[in-house]
């Protein structure tokens, strides 16, 4: 569950970018630390209290390195220190529920790429209700009870090795990939990889959502089985092996990660499936046991704000806001895949995927699909 | 404070530190919800669930096979390496030693990845072999390859214990065997190796335990086949249920403990006969090397093969990967050569922090840990008592928990035991966790030094008027100085790699290389991980060489 | 009162009864040798006196003060007993110089540094180690190491010194010199010395008194002359000195005398067999030097064949065989091979 739920960040763009930001933030900190435009007037109270709290503790699955421009900008903006804890989603969950049960309090914001676990924590009553002033700028599916907020817009793509694919073999969507693998199962034997839904939480969630988006996707899973596909728990291993030619196709990879890798290895190609493309989002909320709830609110609002989302986009984490420009934004993605986007909603719906009986049912069906 | 009270106090603290995380796990295994959940009720559900799981039994069998297999490979191999390097005139033995220890401090995850790059289906060795001889005869993703690699890479642990035991043997035993006509091989198998049986028994049990704990190797090498060992099974279990289920983890730990306890017992029995083998009295005996004669170069060849297979091949893969942006079929390596991975590495403040923290926790922390181990060893030293016996049983237990679970248990203790709470996010907590899980390992290093101190040296101090504690301080401690330095060096190596037990205690300001490697690997930053690992290997190997050249001995 | 008193000491180690009931008294200016076969408990007794082993019953008094009393659960720790102890291996601390080894006891007693130096120098001088103070133990010869060990145990002027086989690690020539040196030193310093040895010759030479231990009990105690010349038991007789043993049947016992039948020949000897009835199995024991070579048959005489001869410098030891017996005898001169008559004088033949 740990793997693939973290994002990596290109160093060169980051360095240049941080420089620009530090400059911008320098005069900003004095002038702009006031109530952001469009926020209610009483927001000044939150800012004031947050400053008294002095720091904000964030539990996140996003690499500290990728998040560092965000952190630096936030610190420059409000003069509030960010204690950023870079964890995997299981670690985050374990740490969070234990701390919530203890007397010592927990993080002020959690920000995880496992939306199902985040929704469960909210449903268990561990998140405060807080209507962010930014709520109107977010798609409806990304807001859960004014408690949890989707913060990114990350398509799930298919990565393949352009130079090693047999000549003439192409696919554009789930159906054509299924056809290709079924027809040439021998050629693709052991050449396809995906997250293992049995061992990886991300893998399970994504395949489960695939089925919700289009039940015909079972044909593809059957084709995976026929081609004796290899299942991993880590995106790094999958892409590394597609890049080296050990495998040819990696299924359901976060676009942000794929984009980064294609830059390093020009042999890698990326396909946004044209029938439907899942879109994942990193979910943030403020815990009830937050020690610094006001700083938490400030950070959450910042993360959702245009300023924060612009940095999210620059960090290639894919901004969820329509009003942010750039390649890694909802706007750019929607221009590419338009109506075929299938965002994974931050909602009670996800609780269903955590139900043991439903999980086992799905996994049994999955196992059956893998029988040769 | 009277020495008897001191002894009891030290051992009681140690016992508490060991039993607290295990106690939590025992308690948790009988609940139906997390123990900190107000609604948690007593239940045997977790036992019923786990024991009815076919995957659990599959993972258990695989793990047991892996543990047995790697022990069966590592123990004889480690003993042989130790014999050749410490007791014979084999060429090149002095510079081989620091390199031999690479698998101890290199993250197994990285080591395994090195194998993938060199000997995986499209690894550069495989590709070369294919072009020269046709299809390759190996498959590094097979279970037998996993056992072999695990065995090979754990041999250095055995080597450490075996070699220090061998160095303590008087050379005349081997000379006597040569006189009666034994070949070097017979000397090793009939005289030297049997004499160090206690050390081998100990390291055998330790390796077996490590076998239950291995995570990195099966994660990388077993991933493509979906190979399940207990530590990866825990992930699968979590995933099946959607959320982590501690009672189920706890049951798995209970099963491992049930397997571990009789082993510890067995080890005690084996060690009890150790007295028979203590042939060293007081000062070290000058040892004469066994002359290998015509076997010199074959022996060298044997070590070379092990070295190539265990260190060189994965290291070559790793080094290669760290200097390219991509690799594999259809890629001309000269086109993709780059230093970017290293530039990126030192551009990353987290990496720099991690390196500083690791150096700090390994050197300073390692020294403090050895200090604790010495304290415990002295508390047990020459004390025939139930306390000593029980504490001997206990020390192995923390190692019997898979690292992630131990990490969780230790985190709970720091969270729910109020006096410890302020320490939770400091390097100190990380240090305690490390010290605890490597207790058996480090304590044994210290104990074997203490075993070599002849009792009459301490008694002489008592007779002339020193109290027990004073005699330990004035006589015993100075005599094991070399042993403590050696133990410290080895603990440094172990701590450089360790992280899993402290995984929940790490945070901003306490990141270490071990955790960074795993977390960056999880994030897919293969370039950075390989570059970092190469830097790691260079730093430590150079450090070791400098230390050894400047007179520090790896063996007390 | 005696400087060291041990009363009814009993000790068990690892579940095995080592000392079952041992008592002894030791005065200043006296050397008592603890003698006995291995496993007889002599080292255990010594270590119990030092407090290095804990008995479960009995009493030990040093200078009139009890340091162990089983009945009162009194057990004064080793360091507070103030005894000197010389270890078999010398147990010199290898990481300390000779001076530091010797000075340690003074340092523990809080003696001022300057006085430490004088007393250490004096002690080293008196043992002939004056110039070796700065050396490390491994730079010394065996004899020198032994002296350092003694110096270390005497520097704080204990009245009782315990010596655990102090001479066994020396080669034969040094050992004989060391015996004399040790005896003279102990007399000069007026110490009470308890010395463990397994070598009866050493015990005879050095000690004023010998305590022979056997199976956890005192087999016999007495002066060296008594132990050698008037053994009360077969065990003592055999343990002390070099002996011939003649196995046979007791014929008669009358008062001081007894008669033993050995391979059909009757021997008269000193009765040591209590009230064994006639016909019981008996053994005659006689020292090698008491056996005489004689011409022709007579009372207490038997004929043997010479098997081999060993020249021992001052005399010869001849080995004879016959009548199912091996007999050794000391004699001034060499002998021709063949049959010889040996006499076993009745006054020196003990019959057990």
Summarize the structure in words.
- The complex is a heterotrimer of chains A (372), B (556) and C (352).
- Chain A has 372 residues and is an alpha/beta fold.
- Chain A has two domains: 23-153 and 281-328, Periplasmic binding protein-like II (D-Maltodextrin-Binding Protein, domain 2, 3-Layer(aba) Sandwich), CATH 3.40.190; 154-278 and 352-369, Periplasmic binding protein-like II (D-Maltodextrin-Binding Protein, domain 2), CATH 3.40.190.
- Chain A has 15 helices and 13 strands.
- Chain A has helices at 11-31, 43-53, 64-78, 89-101, 115-123, 174-183, 201-213, 217-226, 235-244, 255-264, 293-304, 306-314, 330-337, 349-354, 356-370; strands at residues 55-60, 81-86, 109-112, 143-144, 148-150, 154-161, 192-195, 230-232, 249-254, 268-271, 277-280, 283-285, 341-343.
- In chain A, strands 6, 7, 8, 9, 10, 11 and 13 form a seven-stranded mixed beta sheet that branches.
- Chain A is globular and about 65 Å long.
- Chain B starts with a helix and ends in a 7-residue tail after the last helix.
- By secondary structure, chain B is mainly α.
- In chain B, 72% of the residues lie in helices and 0% in strands.
- Chain B has helices at 3-29, 45-51, 54-87, 93-100, 102-105, 108-119, 124-133, 143-167, 172-179, 184-195, 197-213, 216-221, 230-241, 246-272, 296-322, 333-336, 340-346, 349-380, 386-394, 397-400, 403-416, 427-437, 439-451, 455-463, 468-479, 481-497, 513-522, 526-549.
- Chain B has two domains: 1-21 and 339-556, MetI-like (MetI-like fold); 55-229 and 266-279 and 295-336, MetI-like fold (Orthogonal Bundle).
- In chain B, helix 2 crosses helix 14 (246-272), helix 3 packs parallel to helix 8 (143-167) and helix 8 packs antiparallel against helix 11.
- With 352 residues, chain C is an alpha+beta fold.
- Chain C folds into two domains: 4-229, Rossmann fold; 242-351, no CATH class.
- Chain C is built from nine helices and 21 strands.
- Chain C has a six-stranded mixed beta sheet, with helices on both faces.
- Chain C starts with a strand and ends with a strand.
- The model of chain C has no long low-confidence stretch (mean pLDDT 90).
- Chains in contact: A-B, B-C.
């Amino acid at each position: 569950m740990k793997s693939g739920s973290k994002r990596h960040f290109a160093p060169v763009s980051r360095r240049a970018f941080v420089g620009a930001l530090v400059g911008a933030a320098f005069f900003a900190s004095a002038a702009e630390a006031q109530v952001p435009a469009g926020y209610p007037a009483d927001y000044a109270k939150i800012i004031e209290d947050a400053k008294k709290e002095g720091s904000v503790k964030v539990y996140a699955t996003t690499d500290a390195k990728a998040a560092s421009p965000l952190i630096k900008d936030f610190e420059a903006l409000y003069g509030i220190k960010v204690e950023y804890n870079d964890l995997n989603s299981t670690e985050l969950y374990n740490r969070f529920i234990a701390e919530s049960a203890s007397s010592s309090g927990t993080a002020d914001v959690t920000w995880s790429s496992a939306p199902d676990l985040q929704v469960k924590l909210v449903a268990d009553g561990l998140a405060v209700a807080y209507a962010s002033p930014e709520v109107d700028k977010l798609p409806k599916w990304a807001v859960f009870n004014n408690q949890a907020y989707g913060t990114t817009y990350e398509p799930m793509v298919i990565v393949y090795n352009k130079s090693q694919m047999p000549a003439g073999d192409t696919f554009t969507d789930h159906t054509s990939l299924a056809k290709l693998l079924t027809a040439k199962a021998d050629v693709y034997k052991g050449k396809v990889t995906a997250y293992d839904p049995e061992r990886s939480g991300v893998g399970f969630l994504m395949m489960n959502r695939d089925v919700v988006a289009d039940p015909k996707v079972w044909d593809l899973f059957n084709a995976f089985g026929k081609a004796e596909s290899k299942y991993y728990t880590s995106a790094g291993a999958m892409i590394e092996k597609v890049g080296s030619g050990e495998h040819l196709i990696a299924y359901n990879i976060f676009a942000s990660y794929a984009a980064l890798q294609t830059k390093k290895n020009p042999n890698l190609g990326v396909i946004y499936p044209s029938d439907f493309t899942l879109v994942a989002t990193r979910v943030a909320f403020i815990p009830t046991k937050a020690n610094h709830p006001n700083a938490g609110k400030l950070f959450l609002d910042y993360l959702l704000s245009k300023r924060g989302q612009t940095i999210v986009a620059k960090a290639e984490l894919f901004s969820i806001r329509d009003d942010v420009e750039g390649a890694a934004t909802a706007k750019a993605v929607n221009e590419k895949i338009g109506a075929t986007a299938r965002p994974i909603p931050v909602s009670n719906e996800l609780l269903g995927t955590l139900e043991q009986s439903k999980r086992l049912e799905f996994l049994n069906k999955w196992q059956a699909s893998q029988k040769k | 404070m009277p020495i008897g009270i001191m002894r009891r106090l030290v051992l009681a603290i140690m016992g508490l530190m060991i039993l607290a995380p295990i106690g939590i796990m025992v308690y948790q295994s009988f609940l139906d919800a997390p123990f900190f959940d107000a609604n948690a009720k007593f239940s045997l559900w977790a036992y019923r669930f786990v024991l009815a799981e076919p995957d659990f039994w599959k993972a258990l069998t695989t793990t047991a096979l892996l543990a047995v297999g790697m022990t069966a490979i590592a123990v004889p191999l480690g003993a042989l390496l130790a014999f050749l390097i410490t007791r014979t005139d084999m060429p090149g033995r002095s510079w081989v030693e620091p390199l031999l220890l690479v698998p101890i401090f290199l993250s197994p995850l990285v080591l395994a990845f090195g194998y993938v790059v060199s000997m995986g289906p499209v690894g550069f060795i495989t590709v070369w072999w294919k072009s020269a001889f046709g299809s390759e005869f190996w498959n590094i993703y097979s279970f037998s390859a996993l056992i072999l690699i695990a065995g090979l890479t754990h041999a250095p642990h055995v080597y450490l214990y075996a070699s220090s035991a061998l160095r303590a043997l008087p050379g005349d035993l081997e000379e006597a065997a040569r006189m009666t006509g034994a070949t070097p091989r017979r000397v090793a198998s009939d005289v030297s190796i049997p004499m160090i049986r206690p050390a081998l028994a100990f390291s055998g049990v330790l390796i077996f335990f490590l076998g239950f704990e291995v995570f990195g190797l099966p994660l990388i090498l077993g991933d493509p086949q979906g190979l399940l060992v207990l530590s990866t099974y825990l992930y699968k279990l979590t995933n099946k249920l959607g959320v982590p289920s501690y009672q189920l983890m706890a049951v798995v730990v209970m099963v491992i403990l049930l397997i571990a306890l009789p082993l510890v017992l067995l080890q005690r029995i084996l060690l009890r006969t150790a007295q028979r083998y203590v042939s060293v009295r007081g000062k070290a005996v000058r040892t004469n090397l066994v002359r290998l004669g015509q076997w010199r170069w074959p022996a060298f060849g044997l070590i070379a093969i092990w070295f190539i297979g265990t260190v060189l091949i994965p290291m070559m893969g790793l080094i290669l990967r760290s200097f390219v942006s991509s690799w594999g079929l259809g890629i001309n390596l000269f086109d993709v050569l780059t230093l970017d991975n290293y530039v990126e590495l030192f551009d990353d403040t987290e990496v720099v922090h991690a390196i500083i923290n690791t150096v700090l926790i390994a050197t300073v922390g390692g020294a403090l840990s050895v200090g604790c181990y010495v304290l415990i060893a002295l508390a047990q030293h020459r004390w025939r008592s139930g306390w000593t016996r029980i504490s001997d049983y206990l020390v192995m237990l923390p190692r019997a928990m898979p690292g992630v679970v131990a990490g969780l248990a230790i985190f709970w203790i720091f969270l729910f035991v109020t006096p410890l709470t302020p320490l939770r996010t400091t390097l100190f907590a990380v240090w305690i966790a490390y010290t605890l899980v490597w207790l058996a390992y480090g304590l044994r290093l210290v104990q074997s030094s203490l075993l070599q101190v002849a009792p009459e040296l301490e008694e002489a101090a008592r007779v002339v008027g020193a109290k027990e504690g004073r005699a330990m301080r004035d006589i015993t401690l100075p005599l094991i100085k070399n042993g403590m330095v050696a133990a410290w060096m080895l603990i440094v190596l172990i701590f450089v790699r360790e992280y899993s037990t402290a995984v929940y205690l790490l945070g901003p300001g306490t990141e270490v290389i071990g955790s960074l490697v795993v977390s960056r690997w999880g994030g897919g930053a293969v370039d950075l991980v390989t570059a970092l690992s190469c830097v790691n290997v260079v730093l430590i190997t150079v450090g070791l060489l400098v230390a050894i050249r400047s007179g520090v001995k790896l063996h007390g | 009162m005696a400087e060291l008193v041990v009363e009814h000491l009993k000790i068990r180690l690892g579940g095995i009864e080592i000392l079952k009931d041992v008592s002894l008294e030791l005065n200043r200016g006296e050397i008592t040798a603890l003698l006995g076969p291995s496993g007889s408990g002599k080292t255990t007794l010594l270590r119990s006196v030092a407090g290095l082993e804990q008995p479960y019953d009995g009493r030990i008094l040093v200078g009139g003060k009890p340091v162990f009393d089983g009945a009162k659960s009194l057990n004064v720790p080793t360091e507070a007993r103030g005894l000197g102890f010389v270890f078999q291996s010398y147990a010199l601390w290898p990481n300390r110089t000779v001076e530091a080894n010797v000075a340690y006891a003074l340092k523990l007693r809080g003696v001022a540094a300057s006085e430490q130096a004088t007393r250490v120098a004096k002690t080293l001088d008196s043992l002939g180690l004056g110039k070796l103070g700065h050396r490390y133990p491994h730079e010394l010869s065996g004899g020198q190491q032994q002296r350092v060990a003694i110096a270390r145990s005497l520097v704080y002027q204990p009245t009782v010194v315990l010596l655990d086989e102090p001479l066994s690690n020396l080669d034969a020539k040094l050992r004989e010199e060391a015996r004399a040196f040790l005896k003279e030193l102990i007399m000069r310093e007026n110490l009470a010395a308890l010395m463990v040895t397994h070598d009866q010759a050493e015990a005879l030479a050095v000690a004023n008194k010998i305590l022979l231990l056997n199976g956890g009990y005192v087999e016999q105690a007495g002066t060296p002359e008594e132990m050698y010349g008037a053994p009360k038991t077969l065990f003592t007789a055999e343990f002390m000195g070099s002996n011939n043993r003649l196995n046979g049947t007791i014929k008669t016992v009358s008062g001081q005398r007894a008669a033993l039948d050995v391979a059909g020949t009757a021997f008269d000897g000193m009765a040591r067999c209590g009230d064994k009835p006639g016909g019981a199995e008996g053994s005659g024991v006689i020292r090698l030097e008491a056996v005489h070579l004689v011409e022709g048959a007579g009372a207490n005489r038997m004929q043997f064949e010479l098997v081999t001869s060993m020249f021992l410098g001052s005399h010869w030891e001849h080995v004879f065989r016959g009548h199912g017996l091996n007999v050794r005898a000391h004699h001034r001169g060499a002998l021709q091979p063949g049959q010889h008559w040996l006499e076993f004088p009745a006054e020196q033949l003990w019959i057990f």
